Amino acid sequence: MFTHIMVGTNDIARSKKFYDAVFAALNIPPSEISATGRITYGKHGARFIVTPPLDGKAATAANGGTISFQADTPAMADAWHKAGVENGGKTIENPPGVRQTPVGPLYLAYLRDPDGNKLCIACKVPA
Fold it and tell me: What is the pTM (predicted TM-score) of this model?
């Protein structure tokens, strides 16, 4: 459905530390800062890119926006959440756990990255 998602950052080194940690919990390898100053993570052909804004202005978080990643298990979701908090993220909303959604029960956890972007981890609840 999408080819990539890109978020802005005001501190690429801080973002690299945070995203390397949360993606490691999802078995996605760390990224290097490219010559263009971006970090790119990929899995199954999709890309997640972190970059300083090209217009030179400060990066800001989307108001009302959420980016959700998929975990294979609730334990993987918990590891993602813990890695995020330990690397500059802030836990938001309810603690990680099962929530009823329009598509059935999901195990969910939410974080704000160091630049304020709202992130979610989602896992189908095992039957």
Answer: 0.91
